[in-house]
Specification:
This protein is mainly α. The protein contains 2 helices and no strands.
């Protein structure tokens, strides 16, 4: 996954991003390569932003 494929302000829900994180771990078999680690880190940042957005919307 390139940095360009995760757009700041993404409209994906935390559940969607979480599923992509889970799929990444399944594909990797529990051990991430350097490239997969980069993808994972980007996904975690996107997931955290989605969680924050959902909390703000709920308030």
């Amino acid at each position: 996954m390139s940095p360009d494929s995760v757009t700041p302000g993404s409209v994906r829900s935390s559940a969607e991003v979480n599923e992509q994180i889970r799929a990444l771990w399944r594909r990797a078999g529990g051990s991430l390569s350097a490239q997969e680690r980069e993808e994972y880190e980007l996904l975690v940042v996107e997931w955290a932003a989605a969680i924050r957005s959902e909390v703000v919307e709920a308030a």
